[in-house]
Amino acid sequence: MIGVDVSGDLSHANVRVSVMGSDAEKAKSLEGLASAARFLRAQLSKELHLRTSPELHFHLDRGLEHAQHIDRVLKGLKESED
Fold first, then answer.
1. Exposure of 29 by Cβ count < 10 A (0-12 exposed, 13-18 middle, 19+ buried)?
2. What is the predicted pLDDT for the residue at 80?
3. Contacts 24+ apart (CB under 8 A), 8-15
4. What is the DSSP pairing of strand 3-6 with strand 55-60?
5. pTM (whole model) above 0.85
6. Topology of the domain comprising 3-81
7. What is the pLDDT of residue 25?
8. Domain-by-domain residue ranges, the chain?
9. Which of 7, 19, 53, 68 could form a disulfide with 45 if both were Cys (CB 3.0 to 4.6 A apart)?
10. Are the CB atoms for 18 and 30 separated by under 8 Å?
């Protein structure tokens, strides 16, 4: 889990996750999280003692992948300078 953005009225929560693996594995992971969303919502409500808990929406965050790509490009540039 990378981060969570919750609506002002606490009715929705956009959960950003980072998943390693192929595109198919990432899609399968998101499907699994989506299918578990109702259970996770109930657990969240119990743990935080909330009367109502936000509906969970899972989204893939590609920030880590992007950072790794930039790092590889910069390393390649440095190697070409040497």
1. middle
2. 81
3. 10/50, 10/52, 10/53, 10/54, 11/52, 11/54, 11/55, 12/54, 12/55, 12/57, 13/54, 13/55, 13/56, 13/57, 14/57, 14/59, 15/56, 15/57, 15/58, 15/59
4. unpaired
5. no
6. GMP Synthetase; Chain A, domain 3 (3.30.300)
7. 96
8. 3-81
9. 53
10. no
Can you list the pairs that 39-44 forms with residues at least 24 positions away whose Cβ atoms lie under 8 Å? none
Q: What is the pLDDT of residues 52-76, one digit of tens each?
A: 899 999 999 988 888 888 988 998 8
Please write the tens of the pLDDT for every residue from 20-61.
Answer: 899 999 999 999 999 999 999 999 999 999 888 999 999 999
* 55-78 CB burial, b ≥16 within 10 A, e <16: ebebebbeeeeeeeeeeeeeeeee
Cα–Cα distances in Å, from 7 out to 14, 49, 54?
8, 18, 8
